[in-house]
Amino acid sequence: MHSTGLGKNNNLVMTDPARLLIILDDWARAGWIRWLDTEFAVFLHRQVPDASPALLLAAALTSHQNGHGHVCLDIHYCLSEPGTALSLPPESPVRQPELTPQQLLAQLDSAQWTQALHNALLVDDKPGTDMQAEAGNQPLVLDSSSGRPLLYLRRFWRYEQTLAHSIQQRLLSRPDVDDRLLSSCIKTIFEQLSQNTAAELTRDCDWQRIACGLAVRQRFSIITGGPGTGKTTTVVKVLAVLQALQHAAGQPPLRIRLAAPTGKAAARLSTSITSQLARHDLQGVPGDVSTVHRLLGPVRNSRFFRHHAGNPLPVDVVVVDEASMVDVELMALLLDALPAQARLVLLGDKDQLASVEAGAVLGSLCQRAALAHYWQQTSDWITSVTGQHVPDHLINNDGTGLDQAITMLRYSHRFGAVPGIGDLAQAVNSSADANTLNAFFDGQYSELKRLHIGNTRDTAFEQLIADLDNGYGHYLSLARQPPATEASSLSWDTWALDILQAHGHFQLLAALRKGEFGVEGLNQRIESILRSAGLLPPWQERAFDTDDARSPAPTQAAWYPGRPVMVTRNDYNLDLMNGDIGITLPYPLPVPGGTELRLRVAFTAGDKQKPVRWVLPSRLQSVETVFAMTVHKSQGSEFTHTALILPQHENPVLTRELIYTGITRAVRQFTLIDNNPKVLPGAVASSVFRTSGLLHAISGS
Ligand SMILES: Nc1ncnc2c1ncn2[C@@H]1O[C@H](COP(=O)(O)OP(=O)(O)OP(=O)(O)O)[C@@H](O)[C@H]1O
């Protein structure tokens, strides 16, 4: 076993930078932090050799926090609850370090640590405002303006300031809107498009109308709500109202762009809006949705985009769906590229897992959404324009300007026939206890099932996976009935589209990556289950070259018909986005003397002329098998039947947000697979706390 060689001198670590670096090295070897985090501290030490160990430790932990989705290190939180704040121990540590971060942090107090951060060469401790942000050149920024010392890498601090400044500006400069005209347009559009379900008519307050009014009234607004609360339905009405106002004013139609963070989420929004457009004549409301990256225009082989403050997007309105998945950098770049006059409407579920990258922007902005905090004058305006009355307990004259721009939709229309899924998600969200959670699976809801399995060799698990109606057997049976080799390319495309659609029928989600209950172990196990069931070809180990089955190519060993893969990195050359799912299938290709079937990966292309893109497997640089998918990767997707498998032991990765996100991916049926009765309630009791100074930067000053 590796030893740091420090022996019992651990109490000297905080007095000697060299010893601290040895400890950081040990943490990286133990898999508790990344090498990048350790290297960052080493780099700073080389630049400024007299930087204190406490500062180097803070720098490494700030970098570690960025890797866990936080924009900064919250000094107080880190000292008071180091395990939770730093998500340590990690999901699958290599080993226990000689001295854990928790033990080392116990040697520090907040005043001492903050004091050690005052180093003029490395830390900017008077960062001022966004406008002066370029002035400092220290790599770290200590922002104490909220009363809590927060340590940032300068890059992230600048993104947050840019965002805060831009949102503030938009909130301050409202567009000119004639309230009487707006009121009449809302009335007309809602009457024209309303489904008028019994549920809708019996509720006291129609939040969708309120959301519509507030989104039209401002240049920045957020519509948040759980699954099926009508975010998409509402935004279509917002856009229809905006175009109607333009029309009434004799102005040309607004230039509207719709975007989502992943290709999959973009396709889902496009499908939803297109189906509404098919039912109603909505002039000027587009059905095309692009990814946010594509909207900004990526410049090949660089981190830059064509659109930025110097070359703004030619738009009047931008709508971003699934905004909880947009990280602080991308959101800052988007706001930067948006003309000052344009409206931005963010849609998303504030309770879902945040982006994997640093910065839970939507979650931070919507922290106060449940209680609305509308001013009396906002409430009066809402009543006069939309006819709705805001309940008294949601009115608060101490609300912020940002509060006035946020609407939370509170009634789900999605789960009418399958209320168990929505009710369970809500119970998870409100931290229900073990008994309440268990009661959901006692048979009262046919849409909720629970499998207790000790390991993945359990027959019940095997049956679930291979099931022909509700498991992977569904799409794989279709995949085993290809058209005739000589059939038209349209027949092959139609077949592939049916399979891609059938694949969305069932998905197994996992919380972890490693181990028997992590996606890696599960993918192997599921492959072998499906092979034994005769649903996948038997030649697992034999290499199957993608263009010639007779010449094995070791690097391509994993390709076989039926293999589902997920793209893990945007590939602009192939026009595939992170999160896109393809299925490996045979495809007829001309060869001398006839036609032969070769393996290709079929992706939905979203193009009526060419609905399927058939990609040569070897061209796919970053893909992984996706029989099991992490809950993180499942965001922005939904599946008719979703199964969530939990590990045998509690783990810091398991949080309320993760369980909620997993459950809400289910449309008709949800199956929980677990064994240890403590794991579900333990996860539901622990919530992700994303440290960020964004809310204070917008509203606190
Ligand atoms: N006011 C309403 N009355 C009746 N049905 C509604 C209403 N609003 C939305 N729906 C229906 O509820 C379903 C979900 O709506 P929608 O897709 O707009 O919700 P969402 O919040 O965008 O969902 P998701 O979180 O899944 O993206 C749709 O079938 C829609 O037609």
Automatic annotation (TrEMBL):
GO CC annotations, alphabetized: exodeoxyribonuclease V complex
Domain of life: Bacteria
Catalytic activity, EC: 5.6.2.3
Catalytic activity line of the entry: ATP + H2O = ADP + phosphate + H(+)
GO annotation, biological process: double-strand break repair via homologous recombination
Residues of the UvrD-like helicase C-terminal domain: 626-670
Domain RecBCD enzyme subunit RecD N-terminal: 30-144
Signal peptide feature range: none
Pfam families, alphabetized: AAA_19, RecD_N, UvrD_C_2
Entry's family note: Belongs to the RecD family.
Function field: A helicase/nuclease that prepares dsDNA breaks (DSB) for recombinational DNA repair. Binds to DSBs and unwinds DNA via a highly rapid and processive ATP-dependent bidirectional helicase activity. Unwinds dsDNA until it encounters a Chi (crossover hotspot instigator) sequence from the 3' direction. Cuts ssDNA a few nucleotides 3' to the Chi site. The properties and activities of the enzyme are changed at Chi. The Chi-altered holoenzyme produces a long 3'-ssDNA overhang and facilitates RecA-binding to the ssDNA for homologous DNA recombination and repair.
Assembly with partners or alone: Heterotrimer of RecB, RecC and RecD. All subunits contribute to DNA-binding.
Official protein name in the record: RecBCD enzyme subunit RecD
Organism, scientific name: Pseudohongiella acticola
